[in-house]
Amino acid sequence: WPYMRSGHLDMGTSIVEVGGREGKITAEMAQFSPTTRFFSLEPFPSLHIQASHRLASLPNAKVLPYGMGEIDLVGEVLGAQDALEKIEIRAAVPVFREIMAQTGGQVDTVWMNCEGCEYGVLKALLDPAGLETLRRIRYLVVAWHRSSWAFSSDDERRRARCDIEDKLAATGAVWDLLEPRESTQRWVISS
């Protein structure tokens, strides 16, 4: 978000935020750029409720009550308040297609903090069945985070990240490092 606010990244007309939490960043961006449409996905009910309240007065922002992953899943996980919450994860490619049906067939920017199920989003887009959808995304902004729960080791996480980066590069996408300290990359998928 700071890159967009400072003008280093074009906001575009549609942004999908995978993992919007309580909606603070989406609300700031939607107020800053009222002509851009924002779709924020948040599977945790406690956070989704907060985001819904925060975004209620912003006609250009919508929070969806599910997350994205490689496949559809429903389950209970430990949530933000250290309580079990029932969450829904939907397969990424159909979700992107639903959003693209509302945005003229493409999404300008997908923003995600890659910690766990977000790896599945990227894997689904890079699967042969997802490549057409990936090509209708202009920018993919990924902040890579160390995750203690999604992988059995740092080596497994690094291998998964390198595999995704190699597959993105094989599509012709190019990247630049937006924030070296945070390991945030912007991939240019289409122009």
Structure keywords:
7 helices, alpha/beta, 3-stranded mixed beta sheet, single chain, 191 residues
Please tell me about this protein's structure.
This protein has 191 residues and is of the alpha/beta class. 35% of the residues lie in helices and 30% in strands. The protein is built from seven helices and ten strands. A seven-stranded mixed sheet has the order 3-2-1-7-8-10-9, with helices on both faces. Strands 4-6-5 form a three-stranded mixed sheet. Helix 3 links the parallel strand 2 and strand 3. Helix 5 packs parallel to helix 7. The chain is globular. The model has no long low-confidence stretch (mean pLDDT 86).
Q: What is this structure's SSE topology?
A:
Layout: H1 2-5, E1 14-18, H2 24-32, E2 37-41, H3 45-55, E3 61-64, E4 67-69, E5 73-78, E6 84-91, H4 92-102, E7 107-114, H5 117-126, H6 131-134, E8 137-144, H7 154-170, E9 174-179, E10 184-188
Parallel strand pairs: 1-2, 1-7, 2-3, 4-6, 7-8
Antiparallel strand pairs: 5-6, 8-10, 9-10
Give the overall average pLDDT: 86
Q: Point out poorly predicted stretches.
A: none
- What general outline do the C-alpha atoms trace? globular
Largest sheet: 7 strands, mixed
What spatial order of strands do you see in the largest sheet? Answer: 3-2-1-7-8-10-9
- Specify the helix fraction band: 25-40%
- Please report which band the strand proportion falls in: under 5%, 5-15%, 15-25%, 25-35%, 35-45% or over 45%: 25-35%
Q: Radius of gyration, Cα only, in angstroms? A: 16 Å
Number of helices: 7
The strand count comes to: 10
